[in-house]
Amino acid sequence: MKWTKSLIQTLRENPGDAEIDSHKLLVRAGLARKVAAGLYAYLPLGMRVLKKIQQIVREEMDRAGAQEIVTPVLQPSELWRTTGRWDTMGPNMFKLRDRGEHEFALGPTAEEVFTDIAKGIVSSYRQLPLTIYQIQWKFRDETRPRFGLMRSKEFLMKDAYSFDVDAEGADKSYWTMYHAYERIFGRCGLKAVPVQADGGDMGDSMTHEFHVLADAGEDGIAWCEGCGYAANLEKAERKCGEIAADAGEQAVEEVATPDAKTIGQVASFMGLGAEAFVKSLVYVADGKPVMVCVPGDRDVNDVKLRRFLGAKSVALADFDTVLAATGANAGFVGPVKPASGDLRIVADIALKGAKGRIVGANKDGYHLKGVDLERDTRLGEGDFADLVVVQAGDVCPRCGKPMAIKRGIEVGQVFKLGTKYTDAFKAVYKNDNLEEKTMIMGCYGVGVSRTLQAIIEQSHDKDGIVWPSSVAPYQVVVELLDPDQGEVVRVAETIESALEAIGVDVIVDDRSERPGVKFKDADLIGFPVRVVVGAKGLSNGGVEIKRRDEDKSKTRIVPPEGALDVIRSLL
Ligand code: ATP
Ligand code: MG
Fold first, then answer.
1. CA dihedral 125, 126, 127, 130 (to 10 degrees)
2. Going by CA atoms, what residue is nearest to atom 28 of ligand 1?
3. Which atom of ligand 1 is nearest to the CA of 153?
4. Neighbours of 24 (CB within 10 A)
5. Nearest ligand (C-alpha, residue 408)
6. Neighbours of ion ligand 2 (CB under 5 A)
7. How many CA atoms lie within 13 A of 57 on its CB side?
8. Residues 161-185 pLDDT 10s
């Protein structure tokens, strides 16, 4: 391919809305272009990468025994009503009507559609196990579309669904996909780590997210160097040792703390560290207020709280609810005698046995000192649980070493669904005794377009992208420096066709630009290998070859006949 014949436009300026490097480079290198917030057009270079990632995904899915199908983007509401998700998916789902007033969704995912298909086709255990997948555009009305392809309204997803006769089979299907994901991301040149995650409304279901570790990641991950424990902060647990910052047995005393509302303000007012305090927050869980107490320097983990309470939803209470439940405004509430006699109080496990703590007095402008959580409140044995977000330095629940917190970009997820969908659809098969049994499901997503950008995020430098050879838009760029000189053109074209003949993607930069401009563009786009063919070089012994990730000093001067072998060894 000749550069002058292809639609490539690089930009000098970063797009105004780009906050992270990969978003800037995606646009500057001319891979994609914004159409509107969260909506992108893929330009030829981006399209080439997207296709290569899809091809890797496809090969690994097929190798794992999954079969490709494709289902409509437009999904009838009836399917979503069967599981109740038409009403519970919330505003993230794009809904529309056809001219006959029939309701549809633009598929944000496709469990319903696939379950319905499996139900319609599978009748006997002989047809199972079955894993089917598609690579299809998905639509989500994200609250904050941002970071380019990372969180967009329309994105390409590979979604696979497995159907098994029993839990053992479902387990096998799950791990088959898990290992396929390891190969997919590995082949994309990505280091993606499997991380335990919360099962959302699927309760304690097993699920792993695959994360690319990067500062730009939107998810926090608890990470143990010691044993490899890795869990999304939504799910991450910690081991609690001795009670920290305990002041011992004391009498309760009321202290005036006017104007000091936050723990930080009260702490500095009293000259104490935040850990001497109990942070008390009023939540509403499935419509009922609950007070949640955690050490003053910790944050409540809403997911853990919801699990512990067995609630469908939890959210911070509004001002009126806080006042009615405790008798005070937020900032002065605490677990000692709140106004409402039947307000449920729960506390983080690290507060079990805590004495001499400072809590809100349930009276505006006051705190209580010397509080013993078990002596002075109605917190009982069953009210303590791990309810906080893990922090760096917390003790690994598996091996006891201190954990670190990393940031991650979720590029894929594998999920055991059990019979949630197959029950709703009555998707059954007949076993060998001709009894009807419900199929057991798993679902497995890869964010194909997000993966494209995650590769850039993980693999770039100050000059631009550094594509892994497997997914690079072109693996080799031949810099034709003197496009008006016949001999130089001949050498460049010989190398081009020799590479094409062995299946290497090559682009010849035949523009009449200064070498500096051409090299800058090549570095920005990030072709893995650069071959410079110019009159001066040829008279000095040959063509110059270097890898994108190598320093200029590593440039090899190779006679044109030897170029092919050197390029091959570098790819
Ligand atoms: P997130 O937590 O980032 O919103 P999710 O867990 O809701 O993602 P899944 O339903 O697991 O997403 O979808 C499968 C994959 O699709 C994700 O692992 C992610 O790579 C990708 N994905 C999800 N939402 C988006 C989006 N808005 N833009 C691009 N890719 C996305
Ligand atoms: Mg997910």
1. 70
2. 151
3. 27
4. 20
5. 1
6. 413
7. 26
8. 999 999 999 999 999 999 999 999 9
